[in-house]
Design goal:
- The structure is a single chain.
- By secondary structure, the chain is α+β, with helices and mostly antiparallel strands.
- The protein has a single domain, classed as Nuclear Transport Factor 2, Chain: A, CATH 3.10.450.50.
- It is built from 4 helices and 7 strands.
- A 7-stranded mixed sheet has the order 1-4-5-6-7-2-3, covered by helices on one side.
- The longest helix is centred in the first third of the chain and has 16 residues.
- The protein is globular, with a radius of gyration of 25 Å.
């Protein structure tokens, strides 16, 4: 009986290891879920495997970490739309860099620890975005230190950042 059980076990393992052919499904693969909201013009995003946008976004944030508007200048489009917490800027690169320099002048140091990133492109190739999640530890020139988690969305067009949305996780009130 042990031999028969052993042979049956070997046969079962062998059968389980065999590749099974997948059959093509017929019909539509369209999502039929009933969502509570509809999107007028969904972009249908896919991962962007070209590392150029990811590198551009990371270098943009790195330039801010280094408090370096000269480096930042190379990554920004001729005009930019910036949304940071309760502040919004929409204008030319030169004006943005002047504003950025004024902000950077407040800091003694910034250290960023990247936690995750994602680069996407719309299926119709009309929009490209990079999302970055990171922790920022900063020290102001007046000695105040802070640690905040950030989520950044950077829209890329023609190899330049044209929109930068930054969301921060504020510490809870004590």
């Amino acid at each position: 009986m042990k031999k028969l059980s052993f042979l049956f076990l070997i046969a079962a393992v062998f059968a389980a290891c065999q590749n099974k052919e997948t059959t093509a499904t017929t019909g539509s693969n369209a999502d039929t879920t009933k969502y509570p909201y509809t999107i007028k013009d969904p972009k249908e995003w896919e991962m962007n495997t070209d590392p150029a946008n990811l590198l551009l976004a990371m270098n943009t944030v790195k330039a801010f970490e280094n408090l370096d508007t000269a480096a930042l200048k190379a990554f920004i489009g001729d005009s930019i739309h910036l949304v940071v917490d309760s502040y919004e800027f929409k204008g030319l690169k030169a004006d943005f860099l002047k504003t950025a320099q004024g902000e950077m002048d407040k800091y003694k140091s910034i250290t960023i620890s990247l936690q995750d990133r994602e680069s996407v492109i719309s299926k119709d190739k009309s929009e490209e975005w990079v999302s970055l999640w990171y922790k920022q530890v900063s020290e102001l020139k007046d000695g105040k230190k802070d640690s905040v988690n950030f989520f950044n969305d950077l829209r890329i067009k023609n190899g330049k950042v044209i929109m930068w949305s930054e969301y921060m996780q504020h510490p809870m009130a004590k």
